[in-house]
Design a protein that fits this description.
mainly alpha, Rossmann fold, 6 helices, about 10% strand
């Protein structure tokens, strides 16, 4: 199922903070709970958490009770939802990638 369909129906998203899901959920204006596993996921999660739109779980916070309580906290946190909407607006204000593609293609032809 395409991720966008799920994100449009979700109130909150729990993911390991991989770029695809984290950015998709942020662009959809969803609050997020992120228990990163490896690679750039820690940095992704921490950067989003700074906005107030998410929580990052440490490796010792991954039991069912802690995850459940964190999701409940996010669902009830009006400030987190407002922050998620600000992040969504920031994504919406960005130029579409097609804009960059056109500029790159023009550079490849030697046309200014």
């Amino acid at each position: 199922m395409p991720q966008g369909i799920l994100l449009n129906r979700a109130t909150a998203v729990v993911s390991h903070a991989g770029a695809g899901t984290l950015i998709g959920a942020a662009a959809a204006g969803r609050v997020q709970l992120n228990p990163p596993l490896s690679a750039d996921q820690w940095e992704n999660a921490d950067l989003l958490a700074v906005t107030g739109a998410s929580l990052t779980l440490e490796t010792n916070e991954r039991d069912a009770a802690t995850i459940g309580a964190a999701v409940e906290r996010l669902l009830a946190d009006l400030a987190a939802h407002a922050a998620a909407q600000r992040v969504r607006a920031d994504f919406a204000a960005m130029p579409h990638p097609r804009t960059a593609v056109a500029a790159i293609e023009l550079q490849g032809t030697g046309t200014p």
